[in-house]
Specification:
Low-confidence stretches: 123-127
Mean pLDDT: 80
Number of strands: 0
Radius of gyration: 36 Å
Order of helices and strands: HHHHH
Shape: elongated
Largest sheet: none
Distance between the termini: 63 Å
Length: about 150
């Protein structure tokens, strides 16, 4: 609720003991509990009033639903959730198809590489131990003014 961890809570207790003294802390804790109870009652009353004013379609409204993101998800997007789930399933199917195609492509590439290596081993260049000669190709310069 308040996102206070153990070290922060211990620090607050130590500060309370230093500031108020050990004899006043039980009375302050009782008062704090009463304030928290009072605030919860106010929040519950406001939620019930909001439910009553919004009507029966929002009867399952909670305080967390007042977050705009949660409210939109719960009351607007639930109507199209089946379509969204269908699209997700289609995308998952496409992913699986792509994985299969990639595996097939890797197998074909492996076969081509093996065939190329087998063909290269019988050539004269590989038997003499020298590397094949690289051929350079002249490329015309790019004319930026022509575009």
């Amino acid at each position: 609720m308040l996102d206070i961890g153990a070290p922060e809570f211990i620090l607050l207790v130590v500060l309370a003991i230093v500031m108020f003294g050990p004899e006043r802390i039980p009375d302050l804790a009782k008062k704090a509990a009463k304030v928290v109870h009072f605030l919860r009652n106010i929040a519950n009353g406001a939620t019930n009033q909001l439910k009553a004013e919004l009507g029966p379609e929002y009867a399952d409204l909670t305080v967390a639903d007042l977050n705009p993101k949660t409210f939109i998800q719960k009351h607007l997007l639930d109507q199209i959730q089946d379509e969204v789930d269908g699209i997700k399933a289609d995308v998952e199917g496409l992913k699986e198809d792509l994985k299969e195609d990639a595996a097939e492509l890797n197998a074909i590439t492996g076969e081509v590489d093996a065939a190329w290596k087998a063909d290269g081993s019988s050539s004269d260049a590989s038997t003499t131990g020298s590397e094949p000669e690289l051929v350079s190709v002249a490329v015309a310069p790019f004319d930026t003014e022509a575009t």
